[in-house]
Amino acid sequence: MKYSKDWLYIDIAIFITFLPFIFVIPFLMKIFVFIGLYFIYKKQTTPLWIIGGISIVFHFYNLIELKNFNIYLQFLVSLLIWGVYLQRTQNKNNYILLSPILFFGLSIVFFQNIYMLFYSIFEVFGFLFLIFYIRLNNYKSALKESGFLFLISMPLVIILFLFFPRYHNKFLPISFNQKIASGFSKNLDTNIKDVTLSSLPIIEFKLKHIYPILYLKGNVLYDFKNGIWYESNSYPKDTIISLDKIESYYLKQYPTNNKFIFAIDLPFESGYGKLNKYYILKSKKNIKTTLFFQLSSAIKYKIAPLQYPYLALKYNKNYNKKAQLLAKEIFNLDEKTKLKKIIEIFKTQKIKYTLHPKNIDSLNIIDSLFQNKEGFCTHFASAFAIFSRMAGIPSRIVNGYVVSKNIKGYYKIYESDAHAWVEVLVDGIWQRIDPTTFAISSDFIPPTTSKLNLYISYMKFILEEWILHYNASMQEKFFNYLKIHFFKVFGIFILFLGVIIFIILKLKQNKNILSPLYKKLGNSPKNESVYNFLKKYNDKKLNEINNLYQKITFYKSTKEDIKKLKKLIKDYNG
Amino acid sequence: MKLIKKFALSSKPTKYFYILIGAIIILFIMAYTHNNNIAYIVMFFIFSISLSSLIIGRINILKSQIEIKKNRIFANQPTKISIFVKKGKFINFNSTYTFPKRGYNILTIKLSSNYPLNLAIFYKEIKKEILVYPELKGVSLKNGFIKTENIDFDGLKNYNYDDIKFIHWASFAKGDLQVKKFSGDSENIQSLVFDINKLQGDKETKISQLALWCYEAYQKNLKFTLILDKKIESKKGFDEIFKRLALY
């Protein structure tokens, strides 16, 4: 059996457009895709009916699951593949001609990421090349023609993209089979003695200014029971007293399968989710796809509870007996001095930071920490919070993420950046205390990714922010920028245009094998044949070149002769 | 306005043009409803590629050049004219033309090209003055002018694969194969004279008749003299003779 060539272009088109789906279709469909090729080759339809049908039924027999959008999409794509495979065994028809367009349409709706962006541009170029290849039947000139057309349409695409009026700020929260980071839990368990955190990304954002350290609030916890800090709704609401250093930014949050959105401390306005009474940003549903939205946070702020939180002074008097004695000494001082004293007590401890502490008694957390001198942020925070409660300062635990490494204000937070700290109520205002920073024995360097990785992420984020999530407000931002820096933007665009024109001219240039010779002679034939032009010089070497050139152009062109001619021209000197 | 009219008239969109417009509309709906920037970018790419391909196609046809090789064209006779494309891509044209009149005619070549993406077909008309020779019509030399019956018997000669009708059967019966020889035989004709004034009919029929005779004479390598208003010898050349005939 022979492969018929008129299928070639359709097969290439289907292959290119189908490729992104190979990563998301169920396992059995993947097998069907590969096995099916054999039956298409053999032109057997019945096995395709059976195998495809079985794999689809086996995967999607549970019809309730189809309510899940991801699974519904998988089902749709699987059906389409089955259809295409069955049609492929038949004669050429309109259904098979339509299938690349369907695949392409589906893929640009369902894959909303930077890879798909580049891939779709590649697909556009690929189709253009294919059209020229069909028309010219020569891949070199087809590449030249399609490249030329692609390049000259590029500036218009950029102009249209930036200036085409956008009306809303929606984003499409669709993504297939994403890895879900699950390290964050709404409670804080101090019983855990061994922590391994994955390096899955959680949040990305880019700020206007650079800050040495940023805290991202996850949850505020008040109640401590059996070594676990719980969230509670029975405490007084927080109110904003003042906001300072306000940043408006785009936040990219990866799926975590819970409702928490980790905004920079303190978020006060958000395009997505809702702020609860402790200024914690929460989504309505569990986050299963990547979010990208605009919000505003204050880096410096003052918040206070509506009433004095007496419950935030509660602690179990049966435990931490030694610490209670220490706290009694400072109980009667004023709040500020008390806080200073507590910090001093923690500073003198010189505890070793380790993610695998050996002896931790979560109920006697302060005593065991001070005695064994081993622990990590959870233990430090828990100990500090309880200690301050003993000394009469209301306290609460905040868990979330902390980050310091950045590139020009771009931050990327991984699961391994999880952290816990304490907020204490001094002079009626909640103050952030991070005991980990001062209680440890030496400067602790948290594990972070390499600079190169961060740079790649930074580039990706900028592209996502400016291309994938370009919307009405981004356009407004761009126009405002344009008003101020018009000549800069214009200059960059002209430079870009120049580069494109340069490449086009290079592409269009006719390469003449004799042009280096003309350069050496300082003259080229005008209104006369090459033969006569070279003959006029009456030079032995030139005559040799002339003869060889005439042979190549008018009789027979061999690679050896061309090589010889090039060498002769190279060796020619006056 | 005139320019737009000219622009629109000389191009015709193909079905792919309408398909692309449909694709752009669908992509716009996809892009607009969810602010899908990938769909926006694909839409802009399709739009600007098709726009620039239309411009390129137009430039291609405007800059196209052709070269017409000199042909012998006779009136009322479909002739294939050799036309070469000097500049331009995917240029199509009709190469067979028929001209009803002799003399200088205007040849209108309609160039069309669907370069680069077959979104539209562009047209351009090239007009060139071309000399058309008279129609070859009338009585052939064989049947009209040189009639064997009218020529006197001029003795016998040895058979040399001649026509059967010239065989001298009387000598054949004697056992000697000989053929009749006539004084009007082609090898003996010194000079033919085609005089327009001695022909009857209107001017065009006369010219056509003369053209046919001259044509046949050249084919048979006969020498002749053409008399129009002046005498012209056949050695002046085919094209010179026919030019005179065409412009008479």
Q: Which strand-content bin applies to the residues of chain B? A: 25-35%
Number of helices, counting only DSSP H or I runs of 4 residues or more of chain A: 19
Give the terminus-to-terminus CA distance of chain A: 61 Å
Radius of gyration of chain B: 32 Å
Percent range of helical residues of chain A:
40-55%
Give a verbal description of the structure.
The complex is a heterodimer of chains A (about 575) and B (about 250). Chain A contains 19 helices and 17 strands. By secondary structure, chain A is of the alpha+beta class. In chain A, strands 8-11-6-2-15 form a 5-stranded antiparallel beta sheet, covered by helices on one side. In chain A, strands 7-3-14-16-17 form a 5-stranded antiparallel beta sheet, covered by helices on one side. In chain A, strand 4 (about 225) and strand 5 form a beta hairpin. In chain A, helix 1 (about 10-20) packs parallel to helix 5 (about 95-110). Chain A is elongated and about 110 Å long. The two termini of chain A are about 60 Å apart. The model of chain A has no long low-confidence stretch (mean pLDDT about 85). Chain B has 3 domains: about 1-130, no CATH class; about 135-145 and about 190-250, no CATH class; about 150-185, no CATH class. Helix content of chain B is about 35%, strand content about 25%. In chain B, the strands form 5 sheets. Chain B has a 4-stranded antiparallel beta sheet. In chain B, strands 11-12-13 form a 3-stranded mixed beta sheet, with helices on one face. A two-stranded antiparallel sheet of chain B has the order 2-4. The two termini of chain B are about 45 Å apart.
